[in-house]
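Our working data are protein records whose layout never changes between entries. An example says more than a description, so a record of this kind follows.
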Amino acid sequence: MLYRYRYYINNFLQLFYKQRFAGWGRKKTGRLALWCHAKFGGSVRLYEDGFIRSLGLGVDGSPAFSVVVDDIGIYYDATMPSRLENILNSYDFAVDGELLTTAREAIMLIRKYNVSKYNSAPEVDDKFCQKYNLAIDNDSYEILNQVQDSDSFIKNNILIIAQTAGDSSLEYGLANHYSTDDMLGAAILENPLAKIYLKIHPDVLTGKKQSDIDIANIPENITIISENVNPVSLLKYFDKVYTKTSGMGFEALLLGCECVCFGMPYYAGWGITDDRVKCDRRVRKLSIEEVFAAAYILYSKYYNPYKKRQSNIIDTITEIVKRR
């Protein structure tokens, strides 16, 4: 029971001690830590799951491989600066060749082994492709299996990424300017000859959360992907995605897809996405590799929960691939 309330207890004790306040993101503990920091000074640390988190879902108790730590804000809150945003605005990537080399290697491994935030969902297979009419033809599908590279294919498939109702990244990611229905309508209007698919969030499929879109009112010409599947393996069949703030949008960029953002996730505003919302604080034009290096390497901390030791992104990907 005390473990559940450890951040409340810590923040209360810090009022009389070193005033080092801590909590999780924009959850109650994080909001309390920020309030204490603003009221009493001292320092603040906000935590959130990393971008390559675990084998299974966190809600199922799967141990985490990564976490982000932020002493300013948190990466999905675009209403204020964060440590990640400051890194993206100011870090001199040009002089850090080793960092970008590591980033390129990690991206290659993610593409090759379909590594995502969670890694227990089944990968796209022939049966899945037939069900959703995703394979271009049998020869193309065989090539896709061999090279694991979406850039080799001409596709006209559009993916709309639905999220969960009440998602903190929607609340704080400047996503209130548009509804998901607006995003759906834009995808239809802007891609009249494309096949359009809607991916439902896995927590909605398991019944744990509600979707941010009314599935019952989806137009008949939209194909709903109604089963949990590895997102990176799925994205290899698409050339464009629409999202509000989903992290899957950045995974799409890693696969060579276009990404249209109807909110302001951490990877938007840097010149690599089609942004329908603006953030004046984001002033640089960056490459996908640079945004990846900032978020997945500089901003993230890695730990191997099975070997009980600190880790790095390459070892983390290798360990996840070995264990799943």
In short: Residues 137-145, 150-154 have pLDDT under 50 and may be disordered.
